[in-house]
Amino acid sequence: MAQDTEQQHPISIYFWIWGLLFVLSFLSYMVDYINLQGPIRWTLILLFMFLKAGFIVAIFMHMAWERLALKLTILLPPIALGIFIVLMVYEADYTFLTRIVFFGEGAALSVHH
Amino acid sequence: MSEAALTETGDVLLEGTRGVITDFSADKQTFHMPWGKAMMWFFLLSDTFIFGVFLTSYMTVRMSIRDAWPIPSEVFALSFGGEPIPLILIAIMTFILISSSGTMAMAVNMGYRKDRNKTFWLMIATAAFGAMFVGMQAFEWTKLIVEEGVRPWSNPMGAPQFGAIFFMITGFHGLHVSAGVIYLIVVARRVKNGFYERTGGNYEMVEIAGLYWHFVDLVWVFIFAFFYLW
User: Fold this and answer.
1) Distance between CA atoms of B199 and B216, rounded to whole angstroms?
2) Which residue segment(s) compose the domain that A113 sits in?
3) ipTM above 0.95, yes or no
4) Residue ranges per structural domain of chain B
5) Contacts of B109 in chain A (CB under 8 A)
6) A62 and A80, same domain (yes or no)
7) pLDDT per residue over B193-208, tens digit each?
8) Contact B63 A92 (CB under 8 A)
9) How far apart are CA B6 and CA A65, in angstroms?
10) Per the CB < 8 Å rule, is B63 touching A42?
11) Of the options 1.20.120.80, 1.10.230.10, 3.30.70.270, 3.40.640.10, the CATH number for the domain spanning B34-229
12) pLDDT bracket for residue A1 (50, 70, 90)
């Protein structure tokens, strides 16, 4: 085996992150429970989501301690996914506007978009 | 100063960017880990793209239609004789998966400490949490199909695409959780029976199973945020 340090860390780090994940999940839930709306809602949803995802990948999945080669191999390709998502935002928006233009007064139909 | 880490053939492993270059130009192995672990990471990368495009298609549909999208905190509310509590079942499911990730992380740690008994029971606990999660998801599906009349092609609450998106995304995720439960039980039993003692005495298989399980939790983090909360 290449590396002797077989990913052993004091178990306490897992408890801390575990607790943190519970707190972040609770906060995510509260965003909906207290009925925040609009940009603050979306910002907080995304913030807590990325924090949770980051801790799960970095600590629970050990990525923080892996070699850079693996980090890059796994974390760079999803950037392509991110670019695709941006493209689809423009595409979906275009489709929506086209439907309004060609099928008539549609904006009124959309209560919760 | 700690000892330098070595490759399988005795060369010094470099760190940082130089490490990336020497890793990728190495003679025999790029990733200095058991092949099973590297392959699990690659599988998880492909699965990231699968779930990523499902969620992207959900985004595209929801952004491009003119019909109102059903409000998840209303659709997924449960009442216990009083006021409906929004998303309570989903919140419980989230806590269950987070708990299972914790027990899994501890199982991996116990595996490397060679404590077979604790590893076994922590993996069984993880699988039990997973099974509970699937059970609750099945309850949710039943409620939506039978009581709310949600179908892949229509529903009484709003946009007709809601059902297709919901069943596809949560269905794929639930299948992954179910497969993971079986996978965990198989590996847990092998730990208990001393199988991994006979095949070299290392417990990387526990860590590899752990990677899969954390991924399942990770996908739920995204589904929870984008589908249920947004």
Assistant:
1) 28
2) 76-113
3) no
4) 1-32, 34-229
5) 8-9, 11, 14
6) no
7) 999 999 888 899 999 9
8) yes
9) 16
10) no
11) 1.20.120.80
12) very low
